[in-house]
Specification:
The chain has about 280 residues and is α/β, with parallel strands linked by helices. About 50% of the residues lie in helices and about 20% in strands. Strand 3 (about 50-55) and strand 4 (about 60-65) form a beta hairpin. It starts with 10 loop residues before the first strand and ends with a strand.
Amino acid sequence: MLSAIRTDKKIIQIPVVRIRQNSICTRHDYSPSELRSLAQSISNLGILTPLLVRKVSSSEYELIDGERRLRAGVMCGRKKLPCIVENCTDKDAALRTLASNLTRTEPDFFDIADSMNNIANEYDMTFSELSRTLGIKHSEILTSQRLLRFTDEERELIREFGLTKEHALAAVRIENPSERRMTLSEIIEGGMNVLQSEAFIDELLTRKKRLHRLHQKSTLVLKTTRILENTINKAVDTMRESGLTVVTEQKETEGYIEYSVRIEKSTGKVTEVIRTA
């Protein structure tokens, strides 16, 4: 659980230049139009809900909740913003910021995944502990961490074209970044919904597995063929060294590879044919 915090709920005006973001929990999902709308509202009505901050030095505060209000306030030219100062640890501040982001209507799933990973690493928390603290399923955290495989370019592509978390979780099954990037482009160009994207990726992965098995089989056949060929060549060399006349021939078709070894004898001819599939 989050530890208790102390606050007198007193609202104070703090210069925006003295408020810094929480470096552990960052956000990128800010709509310019929404910020402009909020800035206009602040210009007309002021900030109705104070920001939550904590003091980190004699002249600096760290934001816990209210980054949109902070950005919009700066956008409309406010030099100071109303804040409530809370007394909490670095860890609790990060957890409260993450908890606040989780309650938003449509939180950015990449930002959430980053924040969870950052908190776990910074404060040596297991995902089980993080799950209990935030009150969310452990499996949800593990699923979220799969999104960290995406490159920055892929993230921006997903954000720009409004793909959902379910789209992203389907695409992340493709391990190769260049193949994944191409797949995302095809999903976007095709206007695929989640079910269509999952079916499309299932087909890609099935085809890739099939090609992989064929490649493995071809590699095995080639390796076996080389071993057999070397064995036959050694045997032929031995026979020739003993004075026998040996004629060899190799023929390859779609279904098999054929080696012919003919040994000339004074009493006649013997032909042995060895086939390998």
